[in-house]
Specification:
Blueprint lengths: L10 E7 L6 E2 L5 E2 L5 E6 L5 E7 L5 H18 L6 E4 L2 H11 L4 E4 L5
């Protein structure tokens, strides 16, 4: 079993999840505002989770950039090949953030979100 710090990938899949964070229930069974706007998850071509992060805003470009910078540093430390393709569920929103960290990668819309 590999540790998360030793994983890399040349094909990345980034997903933003919102539904799971829509509402939370406190001890009195009353709905309250969610703590976070979204959950970002990055997986590789083997469907292994490379990283995930709770984000305060739904459109979390700043959090995504920070997460990708950390991944790039990890990949460089591991001597991994360059990222070739990044599939994302909202490519129009996240393209600039992805290309700022992985300028060599092609950014494509995840086929599940056509």
């Amino acid at each position: 079993l590999q540790s998360l710090d030793s994983l890399s990938g040349t094909v990345l899949k980034i997903d933003s999840s919102y539904k799971l964070l829509k509402a939370r229930v406190n001890e009195g069974n009353q709905k309250t505002e969610p703590l976070f706007g979204s959950l970002l998850t990055v997986m590789n071509e083997h469907n292994l989770i490379l990283a995930s992060r709770f984000c305060y805003r739904k459109e979390a470009s700043v959090e995504l950039t920070s997460l990708l910078v950390e991944l790039r540093k990890r990949f460089e430390t591991l001597g991994s090949p360059q990222v070739k393709v990044v599939y994302v569920d909202n490519c129009c929103t996240f393209r600039a953030a992805i290309l700022s960290v992985f300028p060599e990668a092609k950014v494509k819309l995840d086929p599940m979100h056509w």
